[in-house]
């Protein structure tokens, strides 16, 4: 080879090599995607990125709330009469009932002879606890009945049986007996029940007799009591 042409050939060769390097090589294939890892938990919900913003409706869109009033309460009618109940088994009659007659009860006044004393200077007193029969008991005419009184010693000394006597004072004579003696002494706070026999007359009516305890020493009564009967 001619030495004069050698530099030229070397330059041409280098030019060819440089041209070959400028050729565009194809892009390498993408690497295969790695397999997804196995799921060990349940599915998860995706969090949305949407943000909800509360907005106030415009006045034209706000519904108007209409308040419905409650109905007014009508008061119950006022009762104008008193209800009456018809007794079972009776039928109301149109015939007016007869007017009611007002009855005036007869009240016996306090008998001043009950517990009376005419010996105010004495410390001997009595109180009548009860009597039998009660006042104005109706008894048949002509018979024999016992009358008794229960007397309480409310004084400050003992009633000595030998110092006093039970005797008739006045009123209707219902018994021939006029006096009776006490059987025993009566201490303060104790009671005695004297008994007499009466013989009602044949004539109907109301009869009252007064008896009493009389002190033998002074002759005064320190306690009186009555017997009252009705004969029909």
Layout of helices and strands:
Blueprint: H1 6-21, E1 126-132, E2 137-139, E3 145-153, E4 164-171, E5 179-181, E6 191-192, E7 195-198, E8 205-215, E9 221-231
Parallel strand pairs: 2-9
Antiparallel strand pairs: 1-3, 3-6, 3-7, 4-5, 4-8, 8-9
Structure description:
The protein is mainly beta. The chain has a domain at 126-231: Immunoglobulin-like. Helix content is 7%, strand content 25%. It has 1 helix and 9 strands. It has one helix at residues 6-21, and strands at residues 126-132, 137-139, 145-153, 164-171, 179-181, 191-192, 195-198, 205-215, 221-231. It has a 5-stranded mixed sheet, with no helix packed on it. Strands 1, 3, 6 and 7 form a 4-stranded antiparallel sheet that branches. β8 and β9 form a beta hairpin. The longest helix has 16 residues, at 6-21. The protein is rod-shaped, with a radius of gyration of 68 Å. The termini are far apart. 12% of the residues are buried. Residues 40-55, 86-93 and 103-107 have low confidence and may be disordered.
From the spread of the alpha carbons, the general shape counts as rod-shaped
- Tally the helices: 1
CATH architecture of the domain at 126-231: Sandwich
Low-pLDDT residue intervals, each spanning 5 or more residues: 40-55, 86-93, 103-107
Structural class: mainly beta
Give me the strand/helix succession: HEEEEEEEEE
Major sheet attributes = 5 strands, mixed
C-alpha-based Rg, rounded: 68 Å
Topology-level CATH name of the domain at 126-231: Immunoglobulin-like
What do the pLDDT scores average to?
A: 74
Largest sheet strand order: 2-9-8-4-5
How far is the N terminus from the C terminus?
A: 198 Å
**CATH homologous superfamily classification of the domain at 126-231:** Immunoglobulins
Q: Which CATH C-level class of the domain at 126-231 is it?
A: Mainly Beta
Number of strands: 9
Percent of residues in helical segments? Answer: under 10%
* Approximate strand percentage: 25-35%
